[in-house]
Design a protein that fits this description.
alpha/beta; five-stranded mixed sheet; two-stranded antiparallel sheet; 8 helices; 7 strands
Length: 232
Amino acid sequence: MPSFDIIKKSKPKETFRVSHVLNAFDLDIEKVVEHFKGNIDLDGKNWNIGLIVGGSGTGKSTIANHLFENHFIENKYKAEAVIDDMPKEKSVKEITKAFTSVGFASPPSWLKPYNVLSNGEKMRVDLANSILKESEIIVFDEFTSVVNREVAKTGSYAISKAVKKLNKKFIAVTCHKDITEWLEPDWIYDTDKQQFFFVQKNIKDQNLKSKYIKLESNIEKKFGNHLKNIII
């Protein structure tokens, strides 16, 4: 993957309010730009999980869209049961296996429409839908941004295992660094530092599975036991 040098210009119409901000903060409307420069070198590398992470406004989505424009998750749901929203060419067995592999292991919820699901369930449905599709690369923007942090960690661990088992390529774009050890990325691009690096395998937490099981147990106490069938 080549180096990138992205310049985003923003030139709003000079309304009364815009002019007021420009004058108040001594801004030049011609210089209201964002500049993101760096390199994500994946050529010839074997990987399954990537992580683009950093604070708000540091260019995460801009960079991801520039490099992986056609691979963003864009799922639309219209069916009365989410199981019917999954790719038509997939069997019921393949769909339920995908649901379970990402932690969406509640059969009654498979029969509900997407809009009534919890935020955590919606995230898992999006993940299952994406890994069921033929696309080799999956980019998930705002990954875990709408779920509590415990669910974010278990969801990250589940999708990591599912993606590696299917040998797909998954890229999480997020401002939450707390999921890093749970997602177990092969590479990270830190937009706070505009720095790219591959993760050394030997520094990954070897006790993550036991930590996951303990965290899952805590979630069950709070949210019920519908996660108990997650495939690890």
